[in-house]
Structures are given as C-alpha cells and as structure tokens.
Amino acid sequence: MARILARFASTTERTRFPSANFLSAAAISGTAATATARTTTTTFYRKNILNLTADELANLREAFIKVYEIRATDDRSYQYIAGIHGLPAPIYCAHGNPLFAVWHRPYLLMLEKSLQEQVPDVTIPYWDWTSPTTRQEGIPKAYTDEKDESGNDNSLLKARIEFSGSNFPETSRDPGPLETFDRLAELVKQAQQVDTTYSRYSSALESPHNGLHGWVGGTMGIVPYSAYDPIFWSHHCNVDRLFAEWQAAHPNIVPKEEAFNGRSIWTTPLTPFGVTTEDVWDIKKLGYEYLTDEAPPAASTVAEKFSGTPVLGFSLASVEPTFEKAELEFQNLLHPRSSCEIRVFLNQPDANANTPTTGNEHYAGSLFLFGHGECPGEAGHCAPERGPIDQFDIRRPSHVQPFNTSIDVTEAIRKLAGADEVSVNLIATDPKGNQLTSPGTDFEAIMLTTL
Known about the structure:
Elements: E1 2-7, E2 17-23, H1 25-28, E3 37-40, E4 44-46, H2 54-68, H3 78-85, H4 100-118, H5 132-137, H6 141-144, H7 180-192, H8 198-216, H9 223-226, H10 231-249, E5 259-260, E6 263-264, E7 269-270, E8 275-276, H11 277-280, E9 288-290, E10 293-294, H12 302-305, E11 312-315, E12 326-333, E13 340-346, E14 363-369, E15 403-408, H13 410-415, E16 421-429, E17 435-436, E18 445-450
Parallel strand pairs: 1-10, 4-9
Antiparallel strand pairs: 1-18, 2-3, 5-6, 7-8, 11-16, 12-15, 12-18, 13-14, 13-16, 16-17
C-alpha cells in the first residue's frame, strides 16, 4: 500500500469538518470514561522518518525536548506517558493478547497530542524497519546521531528513566545483526495476508514487533522500560501503520464477534485511556493518516491548477507493481456555484478540453461537480467554514462544506507501469465542454493511494 500526498498552498481559510472526529485530551489521558468527539480543523499526516524535511526533524526534536522538561507527575510529561507501558507499576501494555494492535493506537495518540501541545503540527514519524534502507543501515540516523544540526544533543538518541527504583538511569540500545530484518520482513508479509480474524492478525503482527524490540536491544528489549526510548514511538508508529494498511485491505474484518476475557473486543475498554476498540478503529476519525511520500506541487493558485499545465508529479518508486487498486483523492474540495467537470490526464502535459477521453490511455477519469447556485441566505450563510463551534453545537454545518472525493485511476496507472513519474493535468470544463480556467472550485491536496 502506498499513499503519496501533494499539498497545495491554501487559498481559503481552514475549514471545520464535524465528521472528522478525534479523541479529546480528557479521554486520551484517562480522565473521562468514554471518548468525546469534537471537531478538528485538519488531518495530521505521519511520515516516514527518512522523508522528514530538516525543519520537520528539528521540530520533532524540539517537541521531545519540551515534553522531557515537564515534571513526571504531569500526565502530559514524557516520564508519565512512557511509564504507562511498563514501570512504574501498574503495567498497562497489552502484549500476548488480542488487544495488542489496537491498544497501542491510543497510546501513540497520547504522546502525539502532548508533542503537538509543545510544537503544533508535529506528528510521530514511522520507522519502516521492513524497508531495504533499514536492511542495509539499521536504525535511522535521526535516532543515532550524537548531535543535531545545530550542534546540540540529539533528543532522539536517548531519554532519562526517572522513576524511583529504576534499574537504569537512561535508555540504551545494543543492535543485533542486520540479517534479522529479512526474517522480520517475511513475518510482516505473512501477517498482512491474514484474512480470517482481527485476533489472528494481531497475534501474527506481534511476533515481528517483538523481534524488532529484541534487535534494538538494551532497554528497548525489556517491556517495562522499552517505552522510555524515543525510538519506541517510531517503531510502534510503524506497527500501527501496518495495522491500518491491513484494515484498509480487509474492511469487512471487524472484531465485533471476537472475544477476549469473556467480552467482545469491540467494546473492551483500552485501559487506562478511557476508550474502546470501537472508538479507535478508524484512524481517519482520530484525525491522522500515514504517508508513503510527499510530492511537491507545481501550482498554487486556482488559475494555475486548471491552466492545463501539470499541477504535480508523483514518483512511482514506492508503488508496488502488484497493486490491485489506485485512487486519486481530492481533499478539502470546494463546491462550485456552477456545475462543471474536472478531467484528469496523466503524463499528457498538452491536454486541453479537446483532448480525447475515449481510447486515450492518458485519460484517467472525470470528476463531475454539481453547482449550488447563488447563496439563499444572509452574509456568511454559505461560508464553507461555517460549522459547529464546539461539541455541543447541534446546528447543521454549511451545506457547501468542503469535502473529500476520489476517482478510480487503477487502469490508467497500470498502463503507465514502468514510468518513473506520473504528471497530473486537470482540465475543467462546463457542461457544454468549454474549457474553464476558473471553475469556481478549489482544493488543498491531492493524494494517490494504491492498495
């Protein structure tokens, strides 16, 4: 599975999406009995640690430094959150049982939200330890460098372990042989192919997860101490990514009828987070997704997006040739006042309204938008950003609220197999086929997803 995102400069104010919920800070910290839904303004993207920009890596390190500095008695601190997994007692982590995969999801969110309180928009990156790079190099340099780019101590190298009675003053590592990764990758491949039950999948995924902990060694190889190591979070972020990919490939496998300790896994509380498996099953509702890579956009204004020249290019290096489906998703798409069609052409930079759509292997598909006409209300009634102001606001959001929608580009991408890069051209036309450079719509991002 691959997800490649191109984010464009926003031409509109950030919008509210009542349907995109994530767990409140109270629920994540365990101070509430159930998850509380509220509106969120954006989706956060967790990226491969190897693909972080210099600024993104610097922000991540700064966020870790700041949570390190919070006193341990504060439930937002690194010491408090790391201790939930193991020591000091009680030990809450779910290992050796079906809750393994799902329990670590709110645990990751708990730290991520604390990091974002310190440095907005920071996300936990994932370390893909099944990748060829890891098989050759081992732990990413972001976690092994002694110093950061400014010459300061690297906050991702290690962390203190401060609870009374600890056997270790700080985290340590003792990596094993690189050949181990070949076996771990094969176990992951087998786990991702499980098509029976969630419980069986979780168990299959836990084995290579365990192997990675043991390979890193040191305190990472000891359950009660492992979460104090900064690399623990990128390791488990990768486990969660694999879990999310398995969910996407097996949407009909949901553990409603599966039991653990005499209770449905679906409704089992994930202690101490105050949430259930059902609450955290869908990562989109939690406000985040995983990215394989990002593609730099070649357009910023609406006129440039629909000028007929390529708006972006996707590298296909990370797309497995055996993919079954490919989708092109438009994110935060605005409703136009007048109906229009958006035609998508791949690797055809000279496309225009007269370019054939029939018998043209470069034509990927069309998106038809239904015009909403003039606003029937007073000023602000049709503002796209109008929506609930808090969790108690039961008024309907704007009927022209931006939305996400996709077109199936499977056959078009397959026909371009072997191409290193795919350029995307967007041609907007009115219902008569006349080309439009200002179709009255806009979007913030385009994502190519292959399954």
